[in-house]
Write a structure and sequence with these properties.
By secondary structure, this protein is an all-alpha fold. It contains nine helices and no strands.
């Protein structure tokens, strides 16, 4: 058991080293050798954990997602004892936006991964696997909101969930490009939720 714990810890330390490089120089120049140096280990030692750059980026992306999930859960729990669907949706979707330096670094890693995945079937399969679960989770929240009278009954939860994911993806891309800032991305997300939810419904204020 201790060996497994040490192994996972070392992989996380390497992922953190990759993220530090990504936050300052981007991922294109983040070779295995550079990441090893940043992590304070030899190249051979790093390759004991990750044979290729793609393996390293894949792990780093999953690690980032785990940290993001933890932050989102904490934000939801802090927002209310019994959070409404709108609160849950807002915190989840806001947690996917690059609103600060930590989340910006995570989205940069994700963007680099997705760019590689377009031309790599194995990476593309991994990149797509989380989307149906995310869509289903958001759709379930919207169904509850419809039942509570907070979202119009004619809205299709599955379609609206996919539109929310697409909105966040677009806001993320333009935030990274500097078309607008994080505050504007948050404002536009809130504006869309304001149109989706019935005005004046309980628990709909951002």
């Amino acid at each position: 058991m201790p060996k497994k714990v040490d192994h996972e810890t070392r992989r996380q330390e390497i992922a953190e080293a990759l993220l530090r490089i990504a936050s300052t120089r981007g991922l294109d120049g983040a070779s295995l050798r550079e990441v090893a140096a940043e992590a304070g280990i030899s190249l051979g030692r790093l390759q004991h954990y990750f044979r290729t750059k793609d393996e390293m980026i894949t792990f780093a992306l999953r690690y980032i997602n785990q940290l993001a999930d933890r932050r989102i859960r904490q934000r939801i729990e802090a927002a209310a004892d019994k959070p409404t669907p709108r609160v849950v949706l807002r915190e989840c979707l806001s947690g996917m936006l690059p609103l600060d330096e930590k989340s910006r670094t995570g989205t940069l890693v994700a963007a680099a991964y997705f760019a590689r995945a377009i031309h790599d079937e194995r990476l593309r399969t991994d990149a797509k696997e989380g989307i149906p679960q995310l869509r289903a989770f958001l759709a379930d929240q919207l169904r509850v909101a419809v039942e509570r009278g907070e979202v119009p009954a004619e809205r299709d939860p599955d379609d609206e969930a996919m539109l929310l994911i697409s909105l966040v993806d677009g806001l993320t891309a333009y935030t990274l490009l500097g078309v607008h800032g994080p505050a504007e991305a948050q404002r536009l997300l809130d504006a869309h939720l304001g149109r989706l939810f019935v005005s004046g419904a309980a628990g709909t204020a951002p």
